[in-house]
Amino acid sequence: MTAIAEPRRRAVARRPRFLLDRTEFMGPMFIAPAVLYVFALVGLPFLLALYYSVSAYSIFDPSYRFVGLKNLYDVFESDIFRHALWNTLMFTIGSQAIGLLLGKIGAMLLMKEFPGRGLARALVILPWAVPISLATLAWKWMFDSLYSVINWTLVAAGLVDVANQPQWLGQQDLAFAAVMTVQAWRLFPFGVIIFLAGYASVPKDVLDAATVDGAGFWRRNYQIIMPIIAPIVVIALIFGTVFTFTDLSVVYLLTMGGPMNSTQVLGSLAFQVGILSGDVAHGAMICLFMFPFLLVAVIVMLRALRRREI
Amino acid sequence: MRMGKKTGLRTVSRRMFLQKTGAVAGTLGLAPAIGAPFVSRALADTKTLKIIQWSHFVPAYDTWIDGFVHEWGKKNGIDATIDHIPHLELPARAAAEVSARAGHDIFGFNGSGGPHLFEKSTMDMTPLVEELEKKYGKVSKIGQQVAYDTTTKKWVAFPDYYIDFPVLYRKDLWDEIGMKPDTWDDVRKGGAKLKAKGHPVGIGLGHSVDPNNSYNSMLWSYGASYCDDTGKKVTLDSKETLEVVKFVKALYTEAETPEVLSWDDSSNNRFLASGRGSMIHNPISAYRTIQKSNPALADKIFVLKTPAGPVRRLAAGAPNSYIIWDFAKNKEAATAFLKDYCAHWKDAFIAATGYNHPLFPNLVPKPMPIFSDDPTSHPSDKLKVLETADDWCVVFGYPGPASPAADEVANNFIIPDMMAKAATGKMTPEEAVKWATQEVEGIYKKWAGRT
Fold first, then answer.
1. Which of A275, A289, B171, B204 is deepest in the core (most CB within 10 A)?
2. Which residues are registered as beta bridge partners of B155?
């Protein structure tokens, strides 16, 4: 009987359709579309950027001519580029810090029971859900030189006089603070969601035990809650850092990099040089500067996370 | 069979799921292939013409051109469509169309980054322009700068129009001090007096299109420029440039307020409309808007030529041109459209309320409608001075031809930034000129081997 049964099984195994029942075949098959998608939309443009960055490719002359590292040298020579690089770092660090801090405070408030909490939670998501172009227009009006509601309030409160009201998008430091504020405002709902999810995962009995043992607000927060939710916060930080470092929309819509390039970031400069001016090669080289910084940042954060898990 | 009758989810195996979805996907995937012969014939029978251009600052012009395109398509049995996008999005859209080698047939460029940058992807317009020149006269000097390549001796675009940059000023306020902003020095001196009365002048110093136009105008009027007449050699580092930078510093301090540092292209319009501003350097769109929102204020606003400097009177006009892509699907229809459009150019001029300046001399002969008699203006010849705009308007790159390098200097806002750095005291005028020269030289050096 065994001798008869075995060949029958083998015959079934040889049928090609049986592949569909094999996990080692179907696993890669199911993941393949996602891999292809990422490769086509991230990998290929990245390789293309590398290819263009060492060439003289431009919209005027779209033929390929290898120029080695000349574009790297040209880009570094530009005072505007060096300034944009520094701004990008500050813009990312600043808006992440503000966004996460506000996210944490927002989550702590929204954890409390109060009437209308559901509505408040829904409203908090708005900055994230509203299209950036609309939101930035609203901010632009709030920072307007003539009709700023912020200045109107400051003047009405007697804190500044009309002649010396702040020019939010005209003074270099204020303009940089303004774009950072808008970016932090965009990010903070994401922080709220992450912290809310994190808080929900903290076992209540651990917190109760700590409270009974005399742990106060700060100790509960920084010695119990934060270590438990750290992995999820780091993931949020990685997402936020990548989004902010590569973002150009807020700067482009609010200041176009001005005044005097004080708000210029790598994304907006690359767009200005590579697309508006048609110098694709130098635009690609400027973009590539984002890669090593992001790579190092992500590696450092993930290693810190792994060490914490161990 | 029994298994087949059970349709509950649990009974659907992975294999069955893949079989069914595969069959559906396969059918959907094959559908275009099966239908292709019918679909392609249907497409071939429909002639199309696709046009794209900016959303004009005068909405009435868009209404007119949309109607014209529609009527033209109907008359010629062509499905003609026109899309409008914000002017700042045009360069990115053009780059995308060239990259994909697909999109519209006719592309309308506005401002810098236009036909000279894309000329290797456009149809040679020389036969069309030469034919039109026979009918409407030789293209003006500024028109040649806009659309003619002096190196290849080819028309790279159809020169449509330019937007001039005159002075819009409050005559009532300037009359009170017994002056008018006829020269840049008048602007500074009169502006200082009016600022003291709560009516400063306003010329943007931020990153937007208008400051590029205004500060290049000042450079040229003071005898300076960032390149020579060949368009190859950088000439920014000169005593004339230093003089104009020092002038802008004085103008900013004495006649303006720091708000100009944050302005975009609509801020100066709002500034004049608010009743606070005594003068701006801007196309007449600001005046047209105020006519609608505050007619009494509009009656107090008058128009002058761009202010003169110690050497000459010149302003940077904003160029507008049409190109036909070399990958356009219907080049014949595109060429025919431009010919007919040209024949109706006077209607376009009237629809744009004088905002679009012709580049062929006989399209709108003098006395020009609107400028010589504008029924909405008081007095009705308030805009007559704009008939002379050809004499005092050029485009970026002057005294050389327009070029990708000249456009990149504008796109990077180097001239307004040079002025702003000196005006706000971030740099001395000498340092600002040195900084800007270094940036401009870098750009010209980069493009030198390519164009």
1. B204
2. B148
Contact state of B451 with A60 under an 8 Å Cβ cutoff: yes
B148 CB neighbour count, 10 Å cutoff: 22
Contacts of B94 in chain A (CB under 8 A): 59
Q: How many CB atoms lie within 10 A of CB A194?
A: 23
Q: 3-state SS of chain A: helix, strand, coil percent to 5? A: 75, 0, 20
In the structure encoding, which two tokens stand for residue B223, read together? 């005898």
Residue A76 to residue A84: CA distance in whole angstroms:
11
- Integer CA distances (angstroms), B276 to B168, B297, B324, in order: 13, 11, 45
> Of the candidates B261, B411, B424, which has its C-beta nearest A277's C-beta?
B411
**How would DSSP label each residue in B299-324?**
HHEEEEPPPB-SS---EEPEEEEEEE
> How far is the C-alpha of B68 from the C-alpha of B61, rounded, in Å?
10
Between strands B318-324 and B158-163, the pairing is antiparallel
Q: How buried is residue B396: exposed, middle or buried, by Cβ count under 10 Å (0-12/13-18/19+)?
A: buried
> What b-and-e string marks burial along A208-234, b requiring 16 or more CB atoms within 10 Å of the CB?
eebeeeeeeeeebeeebbeeebbeebb
pLDDT digits (tens, 9 = 90+) for B138-187: 999 999 989 999 888 999 999 999 999 999 999 999 999 999 999 999 99
* Residue contact A257–B207, C-beta within 8 A: yes
Which pair of tokens denotes residue B268? 């100066």
**Which residues are paired to B183 by β-bridges?**
B308
Three-state DSSP at B151 gives coil
Return the closest-CA partner of residue B198 out of B279, B278, B298: B278
